[in-house]
Amino acid sequence: MTNDRTPHWLVQLRFILLCSPVGIVLALILAPWAIFVLPAFFGTLFVFWQASRLFTNGFVKLFDPEGHEAIRRSGGDPFYDSIGVPLNNDSEQVRVTGRKPNTNCPGCHQPVLVKANKPFRCPQCDAHWHENNWWRWTGSKWIVLKMGR
Ligand SMILES: [Zn+2]
User: Fold this and answer.
1) How far apart, in whole angstroms, are the C-alpha atoms of residue 135 and residue 131?
2) In terms of C-beta density within 10 A (0-12 exposed, 13-18 middle, 19 or more buried), how is residue 85 classed?
3) Å from CA of 70 to ligand 1 middle
4) Which of 3, 81, 123, 146 could bridge 106 with an S-S bond, Cβ 3.0-4.6 Å?
């Protein structure tokens, strides 16, 4: 399945890198024990990260089993999808659908994701993507807003 989300390992790597100055300063202060301090520091970070993920996903699964199932079906992960900038820079749409917008709505110029032969209705301006063209209902008839994507 295609997925435009930031890969999980990259989000985790950014987290580790962001925290690493603290570990390095700690290792410099406690120089003689640096060989123990560094693995302990990064080990703690890793355990903390995994525990946070387990907790977040467990929490979502417990209180919103259907939401959890829907996120899973779209290829998401409640924990990684909820992480903000700068660790995860995905847009709201990528977080929810897993896909980047591939065009702009001709009605309101919002970036949207449309697929060939799959009808879509713009939530902003009610333009319709149908039979691979953009349409608008004028109140009495359908007019083509734009041919193709
Ligand atoms: Zn629109």
Assistant:
1) 10
2) exposed
3) 25
4) 146
- pLDDT computed for residue 133 by the predictor: 95
Q: Which residues pair with 118 in a beta bridge?
A: 115
Burial of 127 (C-beta count, 10 Å sphere; 0-12/13-18/19+): buried
Residues 28-43 have a mean pLDDT of 93
Residue 2 has pLDDT above 80, yes or no: no
Average pLDDT over residues 33-54: 95
Between CA 73 and CA 117 the distance in angstroms is 21
- Measured in Å, residue 72 CA sits from the centre of ligand 1 at 28
Cα of 112 from ligand 1 centre, angstroms: 8
Ligand 1 centre distance from Cα of residue 88 (Å): 26
Tokens of 23: 């570990």
CA proximity to 102, closest of 92, 116, 89: 116
pLDDT level of residue 127 (50, 70, 90 thresholds): very high
Would you say the pTM of this structure is higher than 0.90? no
Tell me how far the alpha carbon of residue 125 lies from the centroid of ligand 1, in angstroms: 4
